[in-house]
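Table S2 (text version). Query chain:
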Amino acid sequence: MADLEAVLADVSYLMAMEKSKCTPAARASKKLILPDPSVRSVMYKYLEKEGELNFHKIFNEVLGYLLFKDFCENDSDEPIQQLKFFEQIKIFEKTECYDERKKMARDIYDNFIMEEMLSHTYEYSKHAVASVQKYLLKNEVPVELFEPYLEEIFTQLKGRPFKKFLESDKFTRFCQWKNLELNIQNVELPESFSLELKNLLEMLLQRDVSKRLGCMGNGADEVKMHNFFCGIDWHQVYLQKYTPPLVPPRGEVNAADAFDIGSFDEEDTKGIKLNDADQDLYKMFSLTISERWQQEVSETVFDTVNSETDKLEQKRKLKQKQHFDADEKESDCILHGYIKKLGGSFASLWQTKYAKLYPNRLELHSESGNNKPELIFMDQVEDISSDFILHKNENCIQIRINDGTRDGRIILTNPDEIGLKEWASSLRSAHKISQDLLGSMAKKAGKIYGSERDVNKSMYIFGANCSTKTSNGSN
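Corresponding C-alpha cell output:
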C-alpha cells in the first residue's frame, strides 16, 4: 500500500509539473493588469526626480533592457547594430570553454568590427580595434577581449537611440511596468477575509518599518497579541499539541503547479544564521526587490501581459473618440492622467476624471470627454493640504477654493501611490508659483498706482486674465 501511495504521489507531481510548463504565464498574467498608458506623465516626472531617467539606470533594469531592445529591433527608423554587438560580447564573456570562445571571438570580429571598418557605419576608436587585433594575432582570447568596445557602445546607444526610445510607446510600456512594480505593495485583500485577518496582513505589510507589526519594539509578541490570534495558547503551539485545521490526504500533491512545491524540512534550514551583511539588506526593506521581481516577470508573464495589454489598449483607442493621453509635450501641461474626485450626490461618490494640470489651472474632464471640463483656476485656490488627509479610508489631496460663487473643498485621490504623490507635489508647486506671480504683480501695481485700492484692482484684473488663458498660454 505504501508503494502504491508513493506511485500516486509521483504521478500527481508529474501532472503538476506538466501543467506548470503549459500554463503558468497564462494563469499568472490574469492577476497582473498594467495601469493606463497615461501613467507615463506621472512616471516621467517621478523617474526624473529620482535620478532614474537616464540610459544606464533603465538599460541595467531587466524590463527596461527588454523594452529598449524591442524598440531597437522593431520600432527604430534606422538599424541599431550596437545592441547586437553588445549582446554578443556578453555571451562571449560568459562562455567558459576556451575553444568555443576562440571561435566566437573570430565571428564577432568578422561580423561587427571588420564590417564596421569596411562600411564606416559607426564610429569606434582606433584604440579599441588595435586592442582586439593585438590579442587575436597572438591567438589569445581573454574574457575581457572586447571590453574597450563596451563603453563606446554605451556612448552610442545613450545618444539618439535612447532619446528616440524615451519618445516611443515602448518607454510608455516601461512606465506602466515600473508603476506596477512600485505600487505592488497595494495588495487587494479578498472580501472573504475577516476584518482581523485583513488588519493582520496590512500591519505585516506596512512599508514603513517603524509601523510594521513585529518591528515596533516588542518583536514576535506583537504578532502573537494581535486580535487574529485571540484565544490561541502559544505554549500549546510550541509543544505542537494543536490539531492542524487542515490535514491533506496522504500521497496527494496539493499545489496548483510544480512551482508551488518547495522544501521546508528542518534539516534544510538548521544552523542558518543571519550575519550583519544579511541584516543590512533589511534596513531599507521594501515589499518588492526590484531586480528579483523584474527577473521573475521577464521569465514568466512579461510577453503574455504585454500582448494582452496591447489588445486592450487597441480596443480602447478605437472606442475613445477623444484621446486624453495625447502627447502634451508641445503645450505647457505640467501633468496629466486619471484621478478620482469626490462628487455625485452629497459628495459621496468617487468619480473618475482625466486631469490636466497647467500653470494657471486644473482641468477635470469626464471619462467620456463629451462634456466641458471642470476648471479650477489657481487664483481661486486658497490652500492645498500640505499632507494627505484620510477620507473614506483613502489618502487624499484637499484643495480649498473660493471663487465668489462657491466656498468649499475639492477632494482628489488615486489608487496609484506614486501618482498621488506626484499630483500633490505638482499641484502645490503650481499653486505656489501662481501665488508668487500674483504677489509680484501686486507689488508692481503698487509702484505704478501708488494705492492699495489700485493694487487690489490689478490683482483682480490679473486673476481674470489667468482665468481666460488657453492651454498654450494665449488669450
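Notes on Table S2: Residues 163 and 434 are 32 Å apart (CA to CA). Residues 321-325, 457-475 have pLDDT under 50 and may be disordered.
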